[in-house]
Amino acid sequence: MNNTELTLVALEEVFAICQLAATEEIPAWSQQNSSFISITRTAEELSIVCPESFVPDGIKAELGWKTLKVKGQLDFSLTGILSSIAEPLAKNGISIFAISSYDTDYVLVKQEDFNEAINILSNDFKIE
């Protein structure tokens, strides 16, 4: 699969990347209905990515992220998809936060860099 066969879908919502203590319960505010929520627990932390409108005051959070989703289901044998998105953005000084699900990949970009990221990636990907 080459990049021109891949489509990136821009999600509408603005997201937050939150950090809670590893021992915290998954909070109810993070489990509302949304196009995208990611909850990851490690030995060191509980990370939650959700619409920033869900995040209550007092939560450690990095606000203002927009999300691109790789459209469709990706086979586990495919390689280099995230790097083909990350590399051109990195060359242009745009940082990403990447998350993969069973089916596909999601790339978060700061809201102020999002239009530039779309312009850069539209050279190699279809954008919806």
- Low-pLDDT parts are none
Instruction: Give the N-to-C terminal Cα separation.
Output: 19 Å
Number of E-type strands = 8
Question: Into which percentage range does the β-strand content fall?
Answer: 35-45%
The CATH architecture comes to 2-Layer Sandwich
| Morphology call | globular
Give the integer mean of the pLDDT values.
92
Name of the level-1 CATH class: Alpha Beta
What is the gyration radius calculated from CA atoms? 15 Å
Largest sheet: 8 strands, mixed
Q: How many separate domains? A: 1
Roughly what percent helix? Answer: 10-25%
What structural class do the secondary elements suggest? Answer: alpha+beta
H/E element string? EEEEEHEEHE
**What is the overall number of helices?**
2
Report the CATH superfamily: VC0802-like
Stated plainly, the CATH topology is called: VC0802-like
